[in-house]
Amino acid sequence: MSLADPVPPAAVPVTAAPLAPSRRPWGDRFRAVFGLELRGTLTRPMVWVLLGILVLLCWLMSRGELSIASGDATVGGKKAWLTSEFSIAFQLIMVVSALHGFFLSIVAGMAPLADDEQQVTELLGATPLSPAEYVWGKFSAVLTAFLAILLCHLTLLAAFSYLVPNPAAAEIRGPFAAWHYLRPALAFALPSLLFFAGFAFYLGARFRRPLLVFLFPVAALLVCGSFL
Fold this sequence. Notes:
Elements: H1 25-42, H2 45-62, H3 85-117, H4 121-125, H5 131-162, H6 179-207, H7 210-227
Helix pairs in contact: 1-5, 2-5, 3-5, 3-6, 3-7, 5-6, 6-7
C-alpha cells in the first residue's frame, strides 16, 4: 500500500441490541390448553341441561312450590326465611352435592379421555407440552366452567326471589343480603366442587376407563340421597 492510498477507517464495534424479554412459553401453552378446554366444556349439552334444571329449581323454590325444609312448624319449630343464610346453605349443600357434583364428575372425568377418543394423545406427546401444563390446563378449565355455573345458580336464586313478583312468597322471603348467598357458596359449595372435580379427574387420568368415571357420580348421588 502506497502513501497516497487512503487510510481505511477504524472498525466501529457493533453492540447487539438487548433482546426484549420473551413471554413465558409455559404460560402460553397453559393458556392454550385452558382456552380450548373451556370452550369445549361450555359447548357440552350436559352443561346446558344442568343450567336448565337449575332455572326450573330456582323458579319453583322462589314460588314456594318446591322447598328443602329443615324445620317443622307443626311441633313448635321455627322455619327460617327462604332467603336466609341458613336456608341458602342448606339448599346449596343438597343441590351442589346431587346436581352440580353429578354433572361435574362426568365432565371432569371424561376430560382426559377426550384426547384418547380423538386419537391425538400421541401427537400431544410429541409437542413441548408438559404433563403439568396439560393436566392443570384441562382441570382449571372444567373447574372454571362449573364455578361460573355456580355463580349463575346464586344469581338465579336471588333474581327469582326478589325480581320476579310473587305475592304468595312474601311471608317466606326475608330481606336481601349478598352474604346470605356468598358465604354458604364459599363454605360449602366450593369445597364440594373441588372434591368432585379433583377425584373424577384423577379417575379419568389415572385409569382411563369411562366406566369408573360414570360409576363415581352415581355412587355419590346414592350416598347423598341416603344420608343428606
